[in-house]
Design goal:
109 residues, two-stranded parallel ribbon, 11% strand, elongated
Length: 109
Amino acid sequence: MGLDGEGKLDNDIWIIKTHYPERVGRSEFIANKCIVIVRNPLDAIFSLFNMVGTTSHSESLSDEVLDFAKEIDLFTEFIQQETSVWYDFHAYWQSKSSQIPVHFITYEA
């Protein structure tokens, strides 16, 4: 949310945080090495659902709201959409491994 140097893409930068290509900026992200740090998709997608629903990084939806979202298939549709985004993101970085060194690191169980 506004880190120093965020969006800067020149050779002065050694390490950047990005969601590219999920969130494409004003120009293509170019790198000569990449470490992709990813969460467990089950945790990440559920966390994103809470963030979108509460507009907060630290709050969670109530059980009643979650139950309602499941009843009307909103949660299922969200999971299907985000699974596609998740797949595309990883496929992009896997394809880049033929051009530059790409290393994947996961965290969470």
